[in-house]
Amino acid sequence: MRLVILVCQLGLILRTEAQTPEICITSTTNRPPENSDITVVCGTEHMDLSIYICPVYQALYNESLMVLNNELNKPECFGTADWSVDPPVLKFKIPISQTAISACNSDFKITNEVGSGEFSDFSNVQFVNISGIVTSIDPSAGMITYRPQILYKFSCRYPMQYLLNNTELGVSGVNFAIRDNNGSFISTLSMQLYEDQLYQNILNIPQTGLNLKTKIYVAVTATNLTDRFNVLLDRCYATTNPYPYLNTYYDLFVGCTRDAQTKVELNGASQMAQFSFEAFRFVEHKNLTISTFYLHCVTRLCEVSSCSTLLPNCDSPSRRKRETQPVSANTTVTSPAIFVGKQSSGDSQTFMASHGLASEGNYSSPVVAVIVCIIILTILLVAMAAYFALYIRRRKPIIQ
Predict the structure, then answer these.
(1) Which residues contact 277 (CB under 8 A, 6 or more apart)?
(2) Is the pTM of this model over 0.70?
(3) SS3 per residue for the chain
(4) What is residue 219's predicted lDDT score, i.e. its pLDDT?
(5) Are 259 and 252 a contacting pair, CB within 8 Å?
(6) Is the pLDDT of residue 179 over 50?
(7) What is the mean pLDDT of residues 23-37?
(8) Cα–Cα distance between 163 and 30 in angstroms, integer?
(9) Nearest 5°: phi and psi at 120?
(10) End-to-end distance of the chain based on CA atoms, in angstroms?
């Protein structure tokens, strides 16, 4: 009888070893599951989960018994084993779309927070948090089990606001893929310059520079972006230096405040934002033939249903307050320079960059008209005074 029992136990041991893949028998991950077994990459189009698969087998499960959020009847909620890597892993690929997130019942939340760092001008910045669990399915048919339950929690937090920086804007825009491990919600942001209001013909900037007051049309576009979000520009400004983090700048627009020649044409209504402005020169370049400057845009994503609430209400007397919080991560997109040529001194027009203030030398048309009228009236009054003085002087000899 003892011999029979020993043979049965040996058979069970051999059977268990036969169920464990050979690669796992010698793997360093052939151990009980640990919290560190899961790796989450918050990608630009997908969330990628990688779980060491050998601990799953060691706990008497396999890839067919691991599922997202207990959605047992949906094949798209199961992972795929990858035995080609060392150590082998179980992979889940979750598309960042409303349909895919809802299909496997992952949690999708949008939170509002006070702007921080480069975005401290804005009191409402949105974040997206996507979370869920990968859990084991116990195949035991009885009332009890000796298998441990495996539960891996995951989450990704995506900031919906970025600093889009076109360093040395020029002939063509350059796209820059945002690094996945930063949890950025868009794969590509790009800024492109056009010469026509239909945004069809790319602006070619000659080495001699653009003429002053040349109309420049700017498009900021997001690609590979879920259709639940639009692009919203909070602020665009120019600097004479390629680095956006400077005290000296000239604002084209920020909220309701904008340069007189800047026109925001499309903002927060699609996955492209558009605005235009006229070429200018910086005063500090007065001794240079060509004035070179750099354009930077603070950009955010907004949920389609809430974009209108994030746009500044320029008709309201109350404006959004500025808040200062610890600096948050941002993203920089770079492309080649805006050159503006130097015209004759009588025709040249310059803009003065200041510490957060627009140029004081940029007079509007009504102000110029008033000044001209005052000058004309002054000339007329002086002429009339001279005439009356001369007339009285001539009358005195006649009276005498």
Answers:
(1) 215, 216, 218, 252, 259, 261, 262, 263
(2) no
(3) CHHHHHHHHHHHHHHHHHHCCHHHHCCCCCCCCCHHHEEEEECCCEEEEEEECHHHHHCCCCHHHEEECCCCCCHHHECEEECCCCCCEEEEEEECCHHHHHHCCCEEEEEEECCCHHHCCCCCEEEEEEEEEEEECCCCCCCCCCCCCCEEEEEEEEECEEEEEECCCCCCCCCEECCHHHCCCCCEEEEEEECCCCCCCECCCCCCCECCCCEEEEEEEEECCCCCEEEEEEEEEEECCCCCCCCCEEEEEECCEECCCCEEEECCCCCEEEEEEECCEEHHHCCCCEEEEEEEEEEEEEEHHHHHHHCCCCCCCCCCCCCCCCCCCCCCCCCCCEEEECCCCCCCCEECCECCCCCCCCCCHHHHHHHHHHHHHHHHHHHHHHHHHHHHHHHHHHHC
(4) 92
(5) yes
(6) no
(7) 91
(8) 45
(9) -70, -10
(10) 161
Q: Hey, what are 202's tokens? A: 């790319």
Name, in order, each residue with C-beta under 8 angstroms of 222's C-beta and a sequence gap of 6 or more: 186, 188, 189, 229, 231, 271, 272, 301
If you search the block for the tokens 């601990």, which residue do you land on?
55
Instruction: Look at 358 and 240; give whichever has higher pLDDT.
Output: 240
**Residue 132, number of CB atoms within 10 A of its CB:** 25
